[in-house]
UniProtKB/TrEMBL annotation:
Keywords for the protein's UniProt record, in alphabetical order: ATP-binding, Cytoplasm, Kinase, Nucleotide-binding, Transferase
Primary location group: cytoplasm
Name of the protein: Probable butyrate kinase
Gene transcribed to yield this protein: buk
PANTHER family: ACETATE KINASE, BUTYRATE KINASE 1-RELATED
């Protein structure tokens, strides 16, 4: 079985070639910002990125015509259930003409379809666990202000992959267990998975602050900032200049930990608050299943930190055993998703809007 996985990011395209259960070739192609500036919209980068992928395939002597499936990172579609979706014309139309967010992940489906055209008739072009996966229970959608619903936006691909991996290694059926997954990176997402569905999550704009995002803030004090800052400036504060960066001047957790070790007590308190808020988010989601949790998993780049991993674990291990799955698992998640479809273990869904 031969699978090509594609994960387009803001300044890179990650590629993985997966054969019979194992990634054989993997590469992240960097795209200089000065080159991307030539494109007005993300969709305009299609030929540019496809040519880079074709060069990779030629260099590694990977034959497109031998692929069983090409699976891309899913983009900003309307809310959909988790899993695999065949790339069809309605999906292509939505991503190029209807989607409200011009996001790099939108290219995943477009690239998979373009490459399939050069493969063979049996090759499947698909996406897996797009950004817009939404399996919330109705009660989880209520925010506290009518007309402003809570929405499922976060690291669904990585979090579902980690939850399934942790379940499998613990000998627990993902479809019958309860798992909490905290993705810790530039932005934090914490989700709860119950009976095979991601039924609630705490996104990076309402939960714990991260290395560079503010997380949820006390609104009555934010109103004053809105009077002196434009919307774009507020978005920059929330997404790029908040979190640890606003206190330490850097979003690099390693640098911050080094300063703390050197005796910076003010930063030590901020870093403890960082850990404290992550643990608090995990604890709040445990109430969703009445405290019945099989495993808690920490993933994302920041979970490489022993200080963060041990600090969070100490606070939440009374709920359930904690497993560390550091880094991102998106390429293997895409590959495994494609494999399950080819083997008939998972249904290939059709997208319509």
């Amino acid at each position: 079985m031969k699978i090509l996985a594609l994960n387009p990011g803001s300044t890179s395209t990650k590629i993985a070639y997966y054969v019979d259960g194992e990634i054989i070739e993997e590469m992240s192609i960097d795209h200089p910002v000065e080159e991307l500036q030539d494109f007005k919209y993300v969709s305009d980068q299609l030929d540019y990125r496809r040519n880079h992928i074709l060069s990779f395939l030629a260099e590694k002597k990977i034959d497109l015509t031998q692929l069983d499936t090409i699976v891309g990172r899913g983009g900003i579609l309307p809310p959909v259930t988790a899993g695999a979706y065949e790339v069809n014309q309605p999906m292509l139309d939505y991503l190029t003409k209807k989607t409200k967010i011009d996001h790099p992940s939108n290219l995943g489906a477009l690239l998979a379809y373009e490459l399939k055209e050069q493969a063979n008739k049996r090759t499947i072009a698909m996406i897996y666990d797009p950004v817009s996966v939404d399996e919330f229970d109705d009660v989880a959608r209520v925010s506290g202000l009518k007309g402003v619903p809570r929405k499922s936006i976060g690291h669904a691909l990585n979090m579902r992959a980690v939850a399934m991996k942790v379940a499998r290694e613990a000998g627990i059926d993902y479809q019958n267990g309860n798992f909490i997954v905290a993705h810790l990176g530039g932005g934090n997402s914490v989700s709860i998975h119950s009976q095979g569905r991601m039924i609630d999550s705490i996104s990076d704009d309402e939960g714990p602050f991260s290395t560079e995002r503010t997380g949820g803030l006390p609104l009555k004090y934010v109103f004053d900032l809105c009077e002196t800052h434009s919307k774009s400036e507020m978005l920059r504060l929330y997404k790029r200049e908040g979190g640890l960066k606003s206190y330490a001047g850097t979003s690099d957790a390693r640098e911050i930990e080094a300063e703390i070790s050197a005796g910076n007590q003010e930063l030590a308190i901020v870093y403890e608050a960082f850990i404290y808020q992550i643990a608090k988010a995990i604890g709040s989601l445990a109430t969703v299943t009445d405290g019945k949790i099989d495993r808690i998993a920490l993933t994302g780049g920041v979970s490489y930190s022993q200080k963060v991993a041990s600090g969070v674990s100490k606070r939440v291990q009374f709920i359930a055993p904690v497993v560390i799955e550091a880094g991102e698992h998106e390429m293997i998640a895409l590959s495994k998703g494609g494999e399950r479809v080819v083997l008939g273990e998972e249904e290939l869904q059709l997208f319509n809007y």
